[in-house]
Amino acid sequence: MEPHGLRAVGSHTSLSEMDDLDLSRALDRPRLKIERKRSFDERSMSELSRHDSPRGRSVLDTPLSSARNSFEPHPMMAEAWEALRRSMVFFRGLPVGTLAAVDNTTDEVLNYDQVFVRDFVPSALAFLMNGESDIVKQFLLKTLQLQDSEKRVDCFNLGKGVMPASFKVSHDPIRETDHLVADFGETAIGRVAPVDSGFWWIILLRAYTKSTGDLTLSETPECQKGMKLILSLCLAEGFDTFPTLLCADGCSMIDRRMGVYGYPIEIQALFYMALRCALSMLKPDGDGREVIEKITKRLHALSFHMRNYFWLDYQQLNDIYRFKTEEYSHTAVNKFNVMPDSIPEWVFEFMPLRGGYFVGNVGPAHMDFRWFALGNCVSILSSLATPDQSMAIMDLLEHRWAELVGEMPLKICYPCLEGREWRIITGCDPKNTRWSYHNGGSWPVLLWQLTAACIKTGRPQIARRAVDLIESRLHRDCWPEYYDGKLGRYVGKQARKYQTWSIAGYLVAKMLLEDPSHIGMISLDEDKLMKPVIKRSASWPQL
Ligand code: GLC
Fold first, then answer.
1. Nearest CA to 411 among 300, 315, 335, 489?
2. Is the keyword Transferase in the record (predicted)?
3. What is the pTM of this model?
4. Is 253 in the pocket of ligand 1 (CB under 6 A)?
5. Bridge pairing between strands 177-183 and 166-172
6. What would the pLDDT profile of 361-370 be if each residue is shown by its tens digit?
7. 226 Cβ contact partners less than 8 Å away, ≥ 6 residues apart
8. Residue 199 to residue 231: CA distance in whole angstroms
9. Whole-angstrom distance, CA of residue 436 vs CA of residue 485
10. H or E stretch at 324
11. Helix H or strand E segment including 384
């Protein structure tokens, strides 16, 4: 393995060099819009006409409505903007975030009256795309201040870099002032710290910088320090033998026990993306140089590991099926000692001849074959997936549309856990029963990530088809948090209504389709200097 296969991208000046759609081009909106629309559509049409599925159905067989000009504003857009604005939270007069939900149909608020870091991401992107960057800047600054507070569970302190899962603004009527109260996991169900928050914070800082061209925020000593603190939690050397990040169950969007402990794909993909975003913003002064060096090495090892060991396609599945076990020493083919008997039956049926995905988790004698939407979409956006792998993920989505999208985009994971497996893995969680919530439920918020991945891979037609499904129901159902059932037909049993990220996710998807140049905010180009991945079938026996 070559340790220095990556380009050293050290300073903020590289932010625009690194990405395909740089700021100066993005400023040239009207012309750009027409050019990009044409090129994406053309690529997509030729792509799709070549890629008909074996079942004879292609994404060109979309409902009639998708043939309409999707650049017309849909009436749902205005309602979504209104609802998004209603969710805005103010701190001493300035907007600092959006509530997780503004559901007036229930008294059971739980913690949905807080600003969640992960939930705010689509809101932030919608505001940025609409030229409203102030709320995003204030959010970044306030959460950065919160990072500084003491975090403790009983008598144990969390690392300094941990970013909050959520916060709320509390008003003191006597002193007539606001103050912020954060949750770092110490009051959350299961008491798990949100590993994803810090990564989203870095990703959002880059999106803000990229969208506004305002380099002064990311260059402040406070932001530079904030990034370093987040990353120091992940880059410290220890007992790890893998470049992936070891996590507790429930430390990200799936914030309950769901068998996502170990090395979950969602965290690995966000980790990779955050590392790349940080690399484009960190200044190489003081200890910055050392951090940059560590990031560069980690990115190299991480992409190698993920592209090789997490990738599953027909060929790879067949190889694992024939694995020998109990191999010892450097010559081992089955490095993690995965037992072929542990391959679940469903995956043989599910895997198309063309297509593939990053599996949910890989660890010692452990391969979680479930498909997770967020991790796979972020892998495309961050270019953790090679261009071939990105195309294969989109192929799989097309081939397995009924399973992964059904009647409501998008399944958070597939398939669900049921019976004995559900009892053991979720600990009998009544909220995560089969095909519900985190256990195979359908989450409209994931539409924005799907759409972004479609645009990045030049296949917006797929996204339009998903948007059509959303437009046929979401607003009628009052913007639920999630849907239940194998096809995602039923509004989720305990779903909030007017869930902010369902609303913002829809807006982001629409604006991305309308002006694909927005993709530059949340997408990173392939790092061309990264050593190309060796073809799976050829590489496996030699690794
Ligand atoms: C639920 C979701 C989590 C989300 C939160 C607020 O706990 O699992 O991902 O951040 O609600 O919407």
1. 489
2. no
3. 0.86
4. yes
5. antiparallel
6. 999 999 999 9
7. 144, 147, 201
8. 9
9. 6
10. none
11. none
Residue 413: closest CA among 449, 456, 442: 442
Nearest by Cα to 477 from 105, 147, 122, 138: 105
Sign of the alpha-carbon torsion through 499, 252, 507, 455: negative
Q: Which two tokens stand for residue 537?
A: 């079938």
**Angle made by CA atoms 302, 372, 303, in degrees to the nearest 5:** 10
Check if 255 has its Cβ closer than 6 Å to any atom of ligand 1.
yes
DSSP for residue 427: S
Q: Using the predicted structure, report yes or no on whether residue 532 has a pLDDT greater than 60.
A: no
Q: Mutual orientation of helices 460-471 and 29-50 as an angle, nearest 10°?
A: 100
Does ligand 1 have an atom closer than 6 angstroms to the CB of 429?
A: no
Is the peptide bond prior to 415 cis by the omega test (within 30 degrees of 0)?
A: yes
Structure tokens at 497: 């209504």
Give phi and psi for 56, each to the nearest 5. Answer: 85, 5
Rounded Cα distance between 487 and 233, Å, is 39
Q: From the CA of 255, give the closest atom in ligand 1.
A: 8
- Check if the beta carbon of residue 443 is closer than 8 Å to that of residue 481: yes
Q: How far apart are CA 326 and CA 378, in angstroms?
A: 34
Instruction: Identify the residue whose C-alpha is closest to ligand 1 atom 6.
Output: 100
How many C-beta atoms surround the C-beta of residue 56 within 10 A? Answer: 7
CA distance 33 to 35: 6
| Rounded CA separation 473/55 (Å) | 27
**Is residue 48 scored above 80 in pLDDT?**
no
Better pLDDT: 536 or 355? 355
CA dihedral of 271, 274, 278, 280, whole degrees rounded to 10: 120
In tens, the pLDDT along 74-95 reads 999 999 999 999 999 999 999 9
403 lines ligand 1 (CB under 6 A): no
Strands 115-116 and 152-153: unpaired
The minimum-distance atom of ligand 1 relative to the CA of 252 is 9
**Binding site membership of 100 for ligand 1 (Cβ less than 6 Å):** yes
Can you read off the two tokens belonging to residue 236?
Answer: 């410290």
136-149 per-position pLDDT tens digit: 999 999 999 999 99
Rounded Cα–Cα distance for residues 445 and 276 (Å):
24
Q: Say how many Å lie between the CA of residue 253 and the centre of ligand 1.
A: 6
Phi/psi at 196 (5° precision): -75, -25
Contact 380, 409 (CB under 8 A): no
